[in-house]
Design goal:
With 243 residues, the protein is an alpha/beta fold. Helix content is 37%, strand content 25%. It is built from 9 helices and 10 strands. It has a 6-stranded mixed β-sheet, sandwiched between helices. It has a 4-stranded antiparallel β-sheet with strand order 2-1-4-5, covered by helices on one side. Helix 3 crosses helix 4 (112-125) and helix 3 runs parallel beside helix 5. It starts with a strand and ends with a helix. 41% of the residues are buried. Bound molecules: adenosine-5'-triphosphate and magnesium ion (MG). Belongs to the ABC transporter superfamily.
């Protein structure tokens, strides 16, 4: 069984159908990059998977855990599925380590010593251990985003969802963040990634899933997708991209 099985997912915003009916499996250790034009439903899909948006039909099932919102609460689901956003979502009034510890201490009732030891290791890995007591306003965008990744990792999720995490960064900071994600992929983290960085998509993905109007139009290997896309729609999309 796949780690995450999405079946007949239907998402409606009022009278707008964002996702008519979508099936997608994520295997353990797999990295899927979701591509598609603006408004095709990439963020909606990620937000439905961890319950930030309610879906109106279908199911999201995690192997060994069950159906989100049915067998397990969305609060429990969000501990299994971490998400990193374009806008970091760090608390401005808390320093780095307090931002990182908040979820594990409050939602997971873990001991401060245990989580802090894990946090220290991860901060060192992303080169930010010396910024442990800094406040978000004292950090660059790239640093804030690496902290946001560490915060997500400290929850020990099974899957991480990344929604355009470099889109708000100055170009010189994109690399330092994407390198962290490439490392995670190499270590076998299961991820669903939305990105506009095509070179990165090609490098990090095991599979490219191309969406249009809330539907999967094409699934392909990165090589296949970028050098010889099967669908007309994907050809058009790639022709309009600058990479
Ligand atoms: N909160 C909302 N209320 C109403 N409609 C929404 C809402 N969020 C998204 N939509 C609509 O749902 C569709 C999918 O939007 P979504 O944000 O998922 O696209 P996206 O692929 O992430 O686009 P982008 O690449 O611009 O981020 C669009 O038609 C959008 O207008
Ligand atoms: Mg989006």
């Amino acid at each position: 069984m796949a780690l995450l099985s999405i079946r007949n997912l239907h998402k409606q915003y009022g009278s707008t159908t964002a996702i008519p009916s979508l099936d997608l499996d994520l295997q353990k250790g797999e990295v899927i990059v979701l591509l598609g034009p603006s408004g095709c439903g990439k963020s909606t899909l990620l937000r439905c998977i961890n319950g930030l948006e309610e879906h109106q039909g279908g199911s999201i099932v995690m192997d060994g855990v069950g159906e989100f919102g049915k067998d397990v609460s969305w609060q429990q689901a969000r501990q299994k599925v971490g998400m990193v956003f374009q806008s970091y979502e760090l608390f401005a009034h808390m320093n780095v380590i307090d931002n990182i510890l908040l979820g594990p201490l409050k939602a997971q009732n873990r001991s401060r010593a245990e989580v802090e030891a894990q946090a220290d290791k991860l901060l060192a890995r992303v080169g930010l251990l010396d910024r442990k007591t800094a406040y978000p306003r004292e950090l660059s965008g790239g640093q804030k985003q690496r902290i946001a990744i560490v915060r997500t990792l400290c929850m020990n999720p099974e899957v991480i969802l990344l929604d355009e995490i470099t889109a708000a960064l100055d170009p010189e900071m994109v690399r330092e963040v994407l390198d962290v994600v490439l490392e995670l992929a190499k270590e076998g983290m299961s991820m669903l990634i939305v990105t506009h960085e095509m070179g990165f998509a090609r490098k990090v993905a095991d599979r490219i899933v191309f969406l249009d109007a809330g539907k999967i139009i094409e699934e392909n290997t990165p090589e296949g997708f970028f050098s010889d896309p099967k669908s007309e729609r994907a050809k058009q999309f790639l022709a309009g991209m600058d990479y």
